Amino acid sequence: MNPSTDRFKLQEIEASDISFIHKGLSDPEVTRYYDVHFSSLEATKEQMDWYADLKSNGTGLWWKILYKDSEQCCGAGGFNALDKKHRKAEIGFWLLPEYWGRGIMSEVMPVILNYGFENLYLNRIEGIVESENEKCRQAMNKINFRHEGRMRQAEQKHGKFIDLDIYAALREDWYS
After folding, report:
1. Is 176 helix (H, G, I), strand (E, B) or coil?
2. What SS3 state is found at 144?
3. Which domains does the chain have, with CATH numbers?
4. Three-class DSSP category at 123
């Protein structure tokens, strides 16, 4: 089952989507606060393997986001770090810059969350955001994720320690 909204449909990412994934994950604006960046199509195969491994190992699922009317791909979103025992997963999301500010995240994320709660039987969905990524932090609040705290100097990026904010949506909060 592929989730959809009034304007968008989600389709599972497949190996044939490599050019689109490369377009997004080679863009410095997209990857500024992202853990990966690929400078070549060849290097992007690593990300495609990651998507395939998530699905085959049962540890996640990612979709490309397309406009229903034009079939134009504008971003990707989904789950990784899926833990069936504890019924939780981490959510991720990115959009090509030309689609920023169009309300896509506000429209698509609730459908992805519903999929997680209803089809993957999750109790908890986490979002981990670089503390300097103010736009993403605002978006997480807008779609009713609860800010649970800041992990100070939790990771290294470009030779410096960075802080990460953790957000979560719980099944009981989502349906209340």
Report:
1. coil
2. coil
3. 8-174 (3.40.630.30)
4. coil
* Mean pLDDT of the region 122-144: 93
Q: Are 132 and 67 in contact (CB under 8 A)?
A: no
- pLDDT score, position 176: 83
Is the sign of the CA dihedral 57, 167, 75, 28 positive or negative? negative
Which residue matches tokens 């304007």?
7
How many other C-beta atoms can be found within 10 angstroms of the C-beta atom of residue 157?
11
- Closest by CA position to 105, among listed 81, 127, 131, 83: 127
Q: Which residues pair with 91 in a beta bridge?
A: 79
Sign of torsion over alpha carbons 147, 150, 155, 160: positive
Q: Output the six-digit token pair for 1.
A: 């089952």
- Supply the pTM of this predicted model: 0.93
Instruction: Return the structure tokens found at 17.
Output: 């989507």
Instruction: Find, among 175, 173, 117, the residue nearest to 145 by Cα.
Output: 173
Indicate the helix (H) or strand (E) that contains 47: helix 41-57
* pLDDT tens column, 32-87: 998 899 999 999 999 999 999 999 999 999 999 999 999 999 999 999 999 999 99
